[in-house]
Structure formats: structure tokens, C-alpha cells
Design brief:
By secondary structure, this protein is mostly helical. It is 47% helix and 9% strand. The protein has helices at residues 16-24, 44-51, 65-71, 82-93, 99-109, 112-117, 120-126; strands spanning 29-31, 56-59, 74-77. It has a three-stranded parallel sheet with strand order 1-2-3, with helices on both faces. The longest helix is centred in the C-terminal third of the chain and has 12 residues, at 82-93. The chain is globular and about 55 Å long. It starts with 15 loop residues before the first helix and ends with a helix.
Length: 127
Amino acid sequence: RALDPTAVRYLGTIPFDQTWDYLHHADVGVVVSAGPFMHNNESSKIYYYLRCGLPVVSESGFPNDYVVEESGHGVVVESGNLECMASTIEEVAHSHWSRAAAVSYILERHTWDHRAQTYRPLMECRS
């Protein structure tokens, strides 16, 4: 089956201060990788989407893919499999997800304060 290009509407560049308004009304957050290899950097989109209460569909290859799976609010799919990505996005968009639970997960485990605590023991050893 061919992918339907009319299923997605491109809105152009959105100013950062308006992104939360757009994400609030979205059905699913999509994270696309640059290829089937492990990327050097995490995808911050995963944190933003979950912080907005969105379920996430992410192509595999990001060091923080585990956040999608651990949160229970999304799916990591094989990189490069567009048919799988499209069908998973459609399935996730039409499923029930607890926005409040996704937000709670991020606030309990992945705020900047929580992330900085990871480095605290390393810094204390050097002093």
C-alpha cells in the first residue's frame, strides 16, 4: 500500500515560543533518524513530546530510545521502514494514552535537575 502524502500537513517553521501550543493539540510526536546507526546525540524531541503528554513514535538509533519504552508512552520502530513507521503512527494516534502519566514520567525522571544529578557524583569525586 502506498503512503498517503496528504495525511500530513506541513506548517513550516514554528517559532519556539509557540511550539507548546502546537504540541498541545497534536496526536502523536514523531522522531525521525538520519539512518540505521546509533546516533551520537539524544533526541530532545522525545523529552519534549512526553512533557506535553504526547505518545511518541521514534525510529531506532537514539541513545534515549529507552525513554520511549520505559515511559510506556510510545513505540520505537525499525529505522528506514516507512510502512511500519506510518502504520505505527496511525495506530498510536488512534489509541488511548494518558497524557498526565506521560507528563508525570518526565517530571519524576527527566527534568534538567534530575539529569544534572547524574553528574553530581562525578563532580564530587574531582573536588
